[in-house]
Each structure stands twice: as C-alpha cells, then as structure tokens.
Amino acid sequence: MGGEGNQAAEGAVAEKVLADFDPVKKKPKRNKYAFACAILASMTSVLLGYDFGVMSGAAIYIRRQMNLSDLKIGLLMGSFSIYSLLGSAAAGRTSDWIGRRYTIVLAGAIFFVGALLMGFATNYAFLMVGRFVAGVGVGYALMIAPVYTAEISPASSRGFLTSFPEVFINAGILLGYVSNYGFSKLPLNLGWRFMLGIAAVPSIFVGLVILAMPESPRWLVMQGRLGDAKRVLDRTSDSKEESELRLSDIKEAAGIPQECNDDFVSVPRSRHSHGEGVWKELLLHPSPAVRRILLAGVGIHFFQQSSVIDAIVLFSPRIFEKAGIKNDDEKLLATVAVGFVKTMFILVATFFLDRVGRRPLLLSSVGGMIFSLAMLGTSLTIIDHSHHKLMWAVVLSILMVLSYVAFFSIGMGPITWVYSSEIFPLRLRAQGCSFGVAASRVTSGVISTTFLLLSDAITTGGAFYLFAGIAIVAWIFFFTFLPETQGRTLEQMDDLFGEFRWRESNNKKSNNNDNKEETNGNVDGNGQIQLGATTGNTSIHAQS
User: Which end of the chain is more exposed for a tag (fewer CB within 10 A), N or C?
Assistant: First the structure.
C-alpha cells in the first residue's frame, strides 16, 4: 500500500511538473522589441533592392536616350555591385569604431547623395558617379544590417529576425519594378530620372528611424559598457535568465571576468575592441575553426551570386524579350510578377528558418534552382532554334524564371545572410561579414557586367546551362562543408566549426547536446533556456 501511495504521489508530482512546463504553454512569445529593432535595421536593405529592381526598367529608357551599347549598359548595371564592395570593406572597421547603429545611419546618408546624383545626371559619366556614391552606401548597409540583427536577436528567433534584410531586399525589388511601370508613362527624359531619384526619399526615413534603435549589446560589451549592454539584453531576450546567459557568453568572448559587473569595465586590448589585429587573425594566422568559418562565410556568398540571381533581377526584361515578349508594358508587368513571387516566397521562408533549420532549406532551395535554370536554358534554346513563335516555350520560360526566384527566396536568399552573420566569433564578426559581402558584391558585379556579353557569345540558353552547372557545385559545397547552426548561440560557433564532420551533420540534436549540463537556468545543446526541473534522468524543458 505504501509503495502504491508513493507511486501515486510521484505520478501526481510528475503530472504537475508536466503541466507547469508544457512546451506549448511555456514557449516564449516573440520578443516584440527585438522584432522592431530587426525591422528598423533591415529597412536599409530596401535601398539595394529598389536600385536593382528599378535599374532593370530604367536601363531600357537610359539606353534609348543616351544610345548606349550592351557593354556600357552592363557596366552601368554591374559596376554598382563593385562600388558597394568599397562600402562593405569599410563598414567592418567603421562599425567597430562608431558602433553598428551609426554605421547604418551613415549608409543611408551616402545613398541619399547617390540617388540625387543619379536623378539629376545629364550624361553617362555623371550617371556613373551617382552609381558609385550610391553603391558605397549600399555596401555599408549590406554588411551591417545582418550583423546588427544577429547580435540583437534572442537565439530562439535569430534565424527569423536575421532573414529580414533579405525580406526587405525583395520588397525593394518589387517597389523598383512597380516604379518602372508607373514612371514609364512619363516622357523619355523624365521617366528614368524619377525612377532613380525617388530612392532618396526612403533613405532619409531610414536614417532618422535608426536613431530610435539601441546599440548592439555585443558592441557595447566590447567597449566595456556592461551596464548599457545589460539593459539592451534585458529588453531583447526572451527571459531574464537568457539575458544573463547571453551577457555571460559575451563577457567570456570579450575576455572580461565573470565577476566584473560594473557599468563600465576595462576590456583587454588583445580582444580587439576597435578591430585591431582582426585581419591578422582572419587571414595570416587563423585557427582551423576560424579558417573553416571564413571559407563557409565567403563560399555561401560567392555561390549565392554565381547562381545568377542578380542578373535575372537586372535583366529580366531582356530575358522576357528573348522569350518572345516584345511590348515594353508586357515586359515590365512580367518583371512585376517576378518581384511579387520573390517577395511572397521570402516571407514564407522566414517562418521556416527556426523550425526546419538552415541546411534542409538551403539544400532544397539550391536543388530547385538547378532544375529551374536547366529548364529555362532548354526553353530559351528551343525558342532560339525555332523559326516561329512557340507559345508553350514562351510560357515555360516565364514559369521557370518565376520558379527560379521562388526556390531562391525560400532558402538561398535569406539563409546566406542569416548564416554568414551568425557563424563568425564576436571579435571577428564585423570584419568577417565584410569579407562575405565583398565576395557577394564582386561576384554579382562580374556576372551582371558580363551577362549580356556572355549571352551574345554562347546564347542566353547556353548561359543558363552554365549557371545550372555552377549551382550543382554549390549544392555539393553546402552539403559537405556547412554544419547546421539552428539553435546554437553565437558564442558556440567556434566549437561547432572546429568539430563539424559532414557525415554527422544530420545528427544535429545529439551533437548539440554533448557535454551540456542540464540544470535549471542553463542553456541546453540547442541554445535554448531550460525552464524545467530534472527528475531522475529526465529533464523537462521548453523548446523555442
């Protein structure tokens, strides 16, 4: 009887514990403050998206007014990415000196000047000067927005929030396409000027709203401002326990003793609080883990752009013309459809990043892109070799362009920015991310500049076959080289890349739980705060 009584009591306790710590009931709500900060920081990405989208249509009218060759149009389009390389290269050091927030403000100010120069350009050289200034501003924004968002976000929603820059890039592209269609009704010498110059308006708004954001807590710690960092973490974490744990991890990464709790502390110079020595650690004497992280960060950006996404966005009217659509209005409306599909699927992707994981989405996305590029190459080749209009081939070409941007947006697009912004150690994050963005911009610039020339040399269909082959190489690289980072805290990435073996990549949960002590107030192997109590060998906790 006594044994039965004890069992009944234990059962009642177990039921109470399960009720108290029911994962559905105790799952933390989305942190609204972190959500708002991520949105504000990511709005700078609208500038890049708008420029890429609007240039696809503006180039039609600029070519007509200035009588430009394919080479000059290619340079006008592709040089923007090369110019942004300068901004992204400078943004790492700038953000380490003046902070993430003011670097975003600087990006908006530079782009504002560039947009005005483009809108008032009187000749090709003047227009290229405007492209140069705007490109530098976009380079700053591209590098710093994902870094800031990753550093401000709680682990439970970091993938969701860090994907916001890509969401806003796509929103900007859609706005650019709509702007093309709207301003195309104006006289030739005014339409393209309004298309380009109107971008100055959102850059003012972005620069002002950014001032309402807090500074990155990780940057604050690197400056020894623990009090300010703690206040930011308290507002951007899912719980008080997570805030304390995040602060502890950042202090450890910065070389600050855990017992130091003053509002202002001294940070060891060896931790490079202003970026000194970072280049040496990244390039000259990297550890095996840092070397792998750098290759992963640069590699994912390179393959994102070598999959020809920017050329499709910039030259979609030309692609549709090759497919058999000759009317300007019809071409611009088709590009609006591209922007709409791209934006819708990126919104879908944001809700799966923290549920499905980075690797499954990335590999599925690239697989779909390979299929779409191969089929697009096939349909365009058939059209090229046909002496009369084949409506089914025209429809297939349009559908494959839409399919390609949908598959890109569901994985490769957002995951590139999420992944590269979360894998670098704190002391190397700003400069490391600038390397990735630099690889992205150089690759985009080269492909965008040469796409028309390449299409003339091997046909447009042949070009897409080539890019389908590059996408196959990308899939192999991602499968063998990139570990899953879902649920990991930013401070755990060093160990993750030091231990990763591709054959074990799918066994994420068991690997993540190795050597993690399951006690109250600690983080489990998935980077989540444990909310339950341990009974016997079973730890009951809530997963985000």
Answer: N
Distance CA 198, CA 209 (A): 19
Q: Is there a contact between 353 and 361 (Cβ–Cβ < 8 Å)?
A: yes
SS3 state of residue 9 = helix
* Average confidence score pLDDT of the chain: 79
Angstrom distance (rounded) from CA 221 to CA 54:
40
Task: Write the pLDDT tens digit of every residue in 25-48.
Answer: 455 566 788 888 888 888 888 887
The single-letter code of the amino acid at 305 is: Q
CA distance readout (Å), 483 to 186, 346, 468, 478, 479: 51, 22, 24, 9, 8
Greatest C-alpha distance within the chain: 98
CA angle (281 as vertex; 280, 284 as ends), nearest 5: 55
Say if residues 178 and 338 touch (Cβ distance below 8 Å). Answer: no
- The residue type found at 421 is S
* Contacts of 501 by beta carbon, 8 Å cutoff, 6+ apart: none
| Spatial CB neighbours of 1, under 8 Å, sequence gap ≥ 6 | none
DSSP state string for 160-171: HHHTHHHHHHHH
Cβ contacts of residue 16 below 8 Å, gap of 6+? Answer: none
What tokens were used for 272?
Answer: 């490079």
Q: How many residues does the chain have?
A: 544
Query: What DSSP designation does 520 have?
Result: T
Q: Pull the structure tokens for residue 522.
A: 């600690």
Close Cβ partners of 114 (under 8 Å, ≥ 6 residues apart) = 130, 131, 132, 133, 134, 135, 136, 137
The average pLDDT across 515-520 equals: 38
Among 351, 379, 369, which residue's Cα sits nearest to residue 164? 351
**Separation CA 209–CA 105 (nearest Å):** 9
What is the secondary structure of 427-460 as a DSSP string?
Answer: GGHHHHHHHHHHHHHHHHHHHHHHHHHHHHHH-H
397 neighbors 312 (Cβ within 8 angstroms): no
Instruction: Please give the Cα distance from 43 to 298 (Å, whole number).
Output: 24
